[in-house]
Amino acid sequence: MKPGYDERLQTQLRSVFGYDRFRPDQLPIMNHVLEGNDCLVIMPTGGGKSMCYQLPALISEGLTLVISPLIALMADQVSNLRGYNVEANYINSSLSSAEKQTVFRNLENGKIRLLYISPEKAVMPRFIQYIKQKKIDLLAIDEAHCISIWGNDFRPVYAQLTQLMRELPRTPVMALTATADKATQQDICQKLDMKNPRVFLSSFERPNIHLQVRPAQGRLQQINAFLKQHKNEAGIIYCLSRKSTEEIAEKLRATGYRAAYYHAELESGRRKKVQEAFQKDELQIVCATIAFGMGIDKSNIRWVIHYNLPKNIESYYQEIGRSGRDGSPAEALLFYNFQDINIFRKFIDESESGPDFKAVQHQKLDRIWEFTQATNCRTNLILNYFGEYREKPCMHCDICTHPPKGFDGSQIVKHAIAACKESDETINLGMLVDILRASGRKDIFTQGLNDLRSYGAGREISRIDWIHFVTQMINQGLLMIDYTQHSNLRLTSLSDDILLDKRKIKLTKPLNYKTKQPELKPLTKNETFDVHFMSLLKDWRKNQAVKEKLPAYVIFNDRVLQQIVADRPTTLMDLINISGIGDYKLEKYGQSILRIVQDFINQQEIIKNVKGGSHLESLAMLRQGLSPEQIAKQRGIKRDRVYDHLTELYIKGEDINLHQFISEPMLHEVIEAWRLAKKSFDPALITEYIQTPYPIYKIQVALAIIKKTRQK
Ligand code: ADP
Ligand code: ZN
Predict the structure, then answer these.
(1) Contact in structure between 475 and 336 (CB atoms under 8 Å)
(2) Number of the ligand 1 atom closest to the C-alpha atom of 299
(3) What is the architecture of the domain spanning 5-201?
């Protein structure tokens, strides 16, 4: 073992990336490849995989070649590295030939530390001939599960990578993935021809993501309620069909959210736009099919909703894993229903794959369904699925935080089974519930089902609860679904025992989902200042990003900004202590940040002294997404006062979009009146020159805009 790697790696971690500590496994992995060995790295998304090859690249003489399947992801990684002043380039089909030439020139000069290439490029004989003459110290293969048909995203081109490996027999290989069960792990090592590979399996747990699963009834209302608790927080809603992405995005837009849709049929220019707008925080919500995802390297996604059931646990975990990459809390909410299962079964059966593959897919579907119905810790179920056996409750899933209460459900179960039996097993779940609840549904009467003894036998139980109970019965084997016959419910060998009262059955009550909007707690004065401070920093970051043509998080991610808000650093020494600020970023942005902190502190003093922060409190609430009317209500002050606050701050130079409160024609009317009134800023006087009876606060808003324009 060569000494010295640890120290050099540690120094680079600190000075380039601004981090003090390695995450578990990072250092052993780096040492392993630096000593010339192969390995497979399995870490959850956001776990710090990329760092495992990026840091060795910095202390190696030769080049690190990174194979990465997605163009967008490559571009993000490269701009991220450049943000740290690390020489990185990529080659893929999106580059013009002039751009390609520049990359090759850089390669010749030995300037590049990391070269990202697409697998398509990596298997081209001409490229292989070229690159094998260079000194390559490490070959990193990202999303390595794509090589295996047991994995989740099999890509045939990955299978050809062996050609490249054969030509680079002495180069250590690091395969990386966030998703691989046992079979896939073995397959990766074998297909990549790895020599004595060591498998580094980090815990898959994502402790900052809270998992929640709910039945799909009333999804849209539930989502609306959810979004009210997640004001201005970026998130993704995954849907099964293109149509639902479009419909949901439209509904959300109509409610005032910055939402867009994304699916594979969308023309590529549009797709790119959506993706970029999301990266830059211009869009809050993307409603997407799974086509949206692998290329998203955005660290501040705060929530992921599955509008439909994901097709397996791998997809689910990968998709929710896109949230909370910055380590701050995130929320994953999944809606389940039986229809989705049927759709997936059909997909699988009608696909062209062989019977083995189909069988695996069906089993995977069963597992995700079991996950939705879990009565024990959901995180553990997932960890066990990936071979990481654990029992300790995670305390960040709904089961752990709100354990479902069990009760004797024998009577309920009996009603349901009796109804199935009386109908000769010709009804599906929806119909069963309608019969038990005696709903007025037409086909109940046309089919004479209202004559069953069970008709109306369970009307005191709500529809949602019924669905929950019958689902539990299916999972307990008391009923089964016949997918070949319209998903009708069939009795099982256990059913008779129930009818004969021979068995007691335990059921659990569904959780109580509040669809009512919780009142936002009024902020304390200090929190108000923090919100305001954060928005100043975000504004600065946005401007900086535009100037440098980079996504905002490349400048600093949310976590860094949050620490600045918490620490209020006033010297460069303070700044360097913040995790995520390395030497290069310190030099580049340090002074600007300190200036913002200083201005903020000064301004805070003034406002504290003069007005007790009341103005800023209104502004902070506006920036949280509340309307002036809501602010007034919550603060218990008059609406006009809120407008006073906002217009005053606006004139002082705060970045507030006052135009949102009045229409263009109205502004013109006020300008006209203002001229007639000899440019007076007295709202009362202005009203005398206007025919339309506008409320006085609107006139004030218009006057503020006029005043500000004149200042400029
Ligand atoms: P992955 O490739 O596994 O999805 P990344 O390598 O992109 O994850 O890392 C996720 C985030 O964690 C990035 O913002 C990265 O800078 C950060 N990170 C990685 N290693 C460390 C570390 N040792 N200390 C603090 N942050 C880290
Ligand atoms: Zn749990």
Answers:
(1) no
(2) 14
(3) 3-Layer(aba) Sandwich (3.40)
